[in-house]
Amino acid sequence: MMERPTSTLNYPTSRFCHLSVILGIGLLLLWGSPGASVQAQFRRDPTPNDTLKSPVVLAGHHISFSIYAPQAEDVRLGGTDIPNLAETGSMTKAANGVWSIVVGPLDPGSYRYLFQVDGIQVLDPRNPVTSESNANAWSLVHLPGNEYMDMRNVPHGAVSEATYFSTSLGRIRRMHVYTPPGYERGKGSYPVFYLLHGAFDTDDAWTTVGRAAVILDNLIAQDEARPMIVVMPAGHTGPFRFGQPPANPANPWQDAFVEDFQTDIRPFIEKHYRVKTKRKDRAIAGLSMGGAHTLNIALAKLEDFSYIGVFSSGIFNLSGQSGDTNRGQAPTWMDLHRKTLTDSRLKEGLDLVWFATGKEDFLINTTHETVAMLKEYGFDVIYQETAGGHTWVNWRDYLYRFLPLLF
Description:
Layout: H1 7-31, H2 34-42, E1 56-58, E2 62-68, E3 75-78, H3 85-88, E4 92-93, E5 98-103, E6 109-117, E7 120-122, E8 130-132, E9 137-143, E10 158-166, E11 171-179, E12 192-196, H4 212-221, E13 229-233, E14 247-248, E15 251-255, H5 256-272, E16 282-287, H6 289-300, E17 307-311, H7 333-341, H8 344-347, E18 352-358, H9 364-376, E19 381-386, H10 392-402
Parallel strand pairs: 12-13, 12-16, 16-17, 17-18, 18-19
Antiparallel strand pairs: 1-2, 2-5, 3-6, 4-5, 6-7, 6-9, 8-9, 10-11, 11-13, 14-15
């Protein structure tokens, strides 16, 4: 057979390839390599910020904080639970433009902090870990050394952000929900614990600075707490004012969050999560403002709750009246809840009423007055008074003490 000629078929392709190579070489000579061009666009001089580490946990329960701010004239470290920063928070500037400070010794736990650079609050740009408040974000550092709140090699639950529409408030809201290890396998139902945050915080707080999920994982792994679903809703429904929680327009004596809880939060959880719905399988607790919310919710529906916890809180203005001109003359808390307080049948299924407050807490008198009032009405109250003040150092510890008593 005659061989098929190939030169005429290959020639155009070969010629095109040679031409492409020639053009490519010419372009490289004219413009340089593409990589070099891109690098040139983003080339900058290195700075100390490129390798700076902040925060750094040091020996002896100390922490080093640093920020690169070569043009700043004054930099301070601020935080809510790090003691004495008003007197000791001034940072020192090195010749390379890095400001630094070492604080401690501190109790093991998580700490929120910010830098004040020439009076402006900024997050730590070298630390991606944050915690939310109602009006701002914080950088967050965890100081290990306390076994119950350190991350350990145990089965871990999951924390999700659940979005729901609040019919009482007329807008979309968010809550955090912890589900225990094994929940995702889709078997069985669990008791439910509603855990409320304090003033100026958000539904994010208990799982970031509060370490709630880590504490639960560790207790469950040690068989010291029952597997449970923990619901952490957003307690603020509007601008916070001390002594005057936002009111529900339809009921001026009803706290708007209490209405949101009863109308939307609890029904949402019972519809979308595998929670048990008997009284003995439902608990509620909160810190500070959340402690007051806890008492308002639980005492309004005492037949629905078997476990109540109040951390660093009580009933504010227990016997006084408010003169809010927009609401008229407010009834006292006692007026609103006297029927529940005097109904002995409701106390029969109440397994736990638990209070804890630090000796240096500014709300300790509020706690004392509330505990005394509940005991006067026949409630069997457990009260623990600890060292310390109105801080997460105490609230994490209170949660750790409270969880093994549930269910």
